[in-house]
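Comment thread on ticket #2218

A.B. wrote:
> Attaching the input chain for the structure job we discussed in standup.
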Amino acid sequence: MIKLFVLDLDGTLLNSNNDISKENIEALNSLSDTGVKIVFASGRVLTSLRYYMNKINLKSSMIANNGAIIAIDENNILKRYDIEENKIERLIKFSNENNMYFHMYDEDTFYARRLDEKRIHHLIIDENLGKKYQVDLVFSENPLKIAMQRKRKILKFQITANNMSQEEVVERLKQIEELSDLYMTFSGFSTVEIMNGKVNKYNSILELSDFLGINKNEIAAIGDFDNDIEMIENAKLGFAMGNARDSVKEISDYVVSSNNSFGIKEAVEKIKEFNRNA
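C.D. wrote:
> Ran it. Output below, let me know if you need it in another format.
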């Protein structure tokens, strides 16, 4: 029986307007009513996950920054995995040497050297509210220094691969000795996401499920991009969105409709059917 349904956000639960359809909200609430726990697992910062969890009117656990934060609920953190300061310094040096835009996150703040609205547009709450954001924003010539002054640990570092492929960026980073053990993945077509080497979504799902007393064979997961592969491949029921990369579809049990349609609702129905037959 499935007791935990883990959802990616961008390209999965969220449509192209960064919103959740009424039909998919109703589907998730109906699944929750059967006793299945709903968990968000996203590359997004924790405050962004809270924002969308409140939108679907559920109180549940969350996995943010690709697994770097495991939150039992809206107010309680089970585990954090930060990136060591010396490694952040080396990532900044690499970005500057290669003339690449970078930004980074703690659990509720976006740090960058300059404003690039393309990088934060998905975090807007409402264009009509003077561009309020789901995170705090810090812009500084030395963003790491600001984070340190605030006594904050960096949980995710992102590099925009604008003059080489994502794969080449990762390959070059892996050749730098002090960075070789970091976890690197993609959640979009131009950005490399970098976390503590112990992190990926699936590892954090296992930590959370162990805390909740849920067996790994009682987990379903759905996503669309590279950073979702581990959780989909290892879930009892693994779903790929219709808009997912081929690499994600190949390892999934089911391919549902796109994020602009009723893919989530279709997955919910499959989980209900599986549980009825369990």
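A.B. wrote:
> Thanks. Noting for the ticket: The longest strand covers residues 37-41.
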